[in-house]
Each structure stands twice: as structure tokens, then as C-alpha cells.
Amino acid sequence: MTDENAARETKLGGISAVSAYILWGIAPLYFKLVGDISVYTIIAHRVIWAALFVALFLIMVNRIREILPIFQSKKSMVWLVFSTITITVNWGLFVWAVDNDQLLAVSFGYFINPLVNVAIGMVLLGERQNKLQALAIGIAVIAVAIQAVGLGGLPWISLTLAFSFGFYSYFRKTVEVGAAPGLLIETLLLVPFAVVLLIWLGPTNPIPVGDSTPSIWVLLMLLGPVTAIPLVLFSIGARRLRLTTMGIFQYIAPSIHFIMAVWLLGEPLGQLRLLSFVLIWVSLAVFTYDSVSRQAKIRKAKRT
Fold first, then answer.
1. Model pLDDT for residues 81-102, shown as the tens digit of each residue
2. Which of 58, 88, 141, 301 is a good FRET partner for 42, with 20 to 30 A between their CA atoms?
3. What is the distance between the alpha carbons of residues 189 and 9, in angstroms, rounded to a whole number?
4. For residues 39 and 41, what is the distance between their CA atoms, to the nearest angstrom?
């Protein structure tokens, strides 16, 4: 690959990755638009329309056949069942938290997610961490403890979001499946449950009827691309950028969540809670410095 082509690929990767994280960052505003509908109804529609959208996407790019070998692999399907469970918990709690004005908790959860990934790597993959990474994790633990004091209990929303997405990333890293085919299988596994949920909730949580009904249905159908497009963009970026670069970009979404929660939605931010955010930012600064430094040493070693 020529330098010009490499630069073009890197630029495409950067634009795609930044776009994905911005879309994930502003996603809460979209869920606020359908706030009059039951959270469980929104989750069910999100699954159904995401499955349809991803299936149509794979058909359009002539990749739908990729899912057949996956269904035939028992090992792949077992891992995808685990990833489906964890992403269901993550999706469900994310929508519930946004609907219940807990966007600061969402922000905190996704800020600590990179450090949760490191901890999972230590425990499950036997990865050894250096002193700076250990320091970053230690500061994050203190930040969680301070937030627990400020909230009067463990920040379970933040921890559940961080660990569910952390384990989702672990399970998806374990199985050799592309982003879009994997997402299609995950959503297809959930579609029967989503349909049953809609039938069960129908009498008690109907879709509002009136002048706004057509627009509400459009919003519900758009949950498909709202769910899938950022993941596709993320996949494009991940294939073209260094892991360090992707690691820095992932702070975009929780930063947007934090700004929206405090200045747009007016969620209360007490002193202890603010201190916990400051500590987690310090932790991430240490973690990012370590990652950038190690990548620089690797590139220098390759040149010599």
C-alpha cells in the first residue's frame, strides 16, 4: 500500500470512528424523543428493527452468506449467545437510565469501561499490567468508592453498563465473527423474545394513538439504523486505526453524555460526584499516557 493510500485509509478510519462515538454520544437525545413509550417497548422495537436493518445491509453489500458458517459452528454460537446476553443487559439498562434521567451514571459507566476491559484482561486472559496501568485502575476504584459515598450506595448503573459492555467486548473478541454478521445473529436470537414482549406488553403499554402516531412509528423503525450504523462505522475505524487511537476516541461518547446531562438536561452534580469524575479523568489520563508511550516505543523498536 502506498503512503497516499495509507493516509487515505487512516483518514477514513478516523472520520468513521469519530462519527461512531459522536452518534453514540447523542443517542440519548433520540431515546428522549420516544420517552412517552414504555422502555421495554422501545427495547423490543430496537431489537426487531436493528435485525431487519442489518439483514438488509448485508444483502445490499452481498455479505449475507457470511452468517451461514457461523450458525454451523457450535463454538461460535455459544460465544454469541453470551455476547447477546451481555449486550441485551447493556442496551436495556442504557435506555432505562436515559428514560429515568440517569445520564450522568451512563457517562461514568462508559468512562470506566476502558479500565474494566483492562481488569477483564488481567483476570480472564492472564494479561500482566505495568505500574501505570495498575495506578490507573487503583485511582478508578477510589473514584467508584467516592461516587458510592455521594450516591449513598454502589453506582450499580455505571458498574453494570461498564462490565456488561466489557464482557461483550471480551466475548466478541473471542469469536471470529465480523461486526455486522455478529450483530445480525445477536439480534436474530433476541427477535422471538422481543415479539413475545410486545404481545405481552401490548394491552398495558400500547403505542399512543393520535396525530403523532405516524411520527412515533417512524422513530421506532429508525431505531434499527440508530443501533447499527454506529457499530458499522466503529468497525470501519477499528480496522484502519491503531488501538491506541481508538482508545482515545472512545472518551468522546461519555464526554458528550456528561455535557448533555449537566448543561442540557440539568441533572444534579454534587461535589462528591464531581470529585469522582475528576479522579476517573485523572485515571484515564494516566492510562492514555501509558498506552501512547508504549505504542511509541513499539514503533521506535520496529524502525531500528
1. 999 999 999 989 999 999 899 9
2. 58
3. 34
4. 5
Each residue's pLDDT tens digit, 173-192: 788 888 789 889 999 999 99
For the record, the C-alpha cell of 216 comes out as 412515533
Tens-place pLDDT, residues 120-175: 877 887 767 778 888 888 998 899 999 888 877 889 999 999 999 889 888 887 88
* Residues 304, 300: Cα–Cα separation, whole Å: 7
Angstrom distance (rounded) from CA 31 to CA 111: 21
Q: Record the pTM.
A: 0.85
111/128 Cα distance (integer angstroms) = 22
Place of cell 464526554: 255
Question: What is the phi/psi pair of residue 269, to 5°?
Answer: -125, 95
Three-state secondary-structure class, residue 251: coil
Question: Cell triple for residue 146?
Answer: 467516592
Rounded alpha-carbon distances, angstroms, from residue 174 to 25, 64, 209: 27, 22, 45
**Chain length of the chain:** 304
List helix spans (H) across 34-73: 39-60, 67-72
Domain-wise residue ranges, the chain: 12-303
Distances 302 to 261, 280, 296 between C-alpha atoms, Å:
44, 33, 10
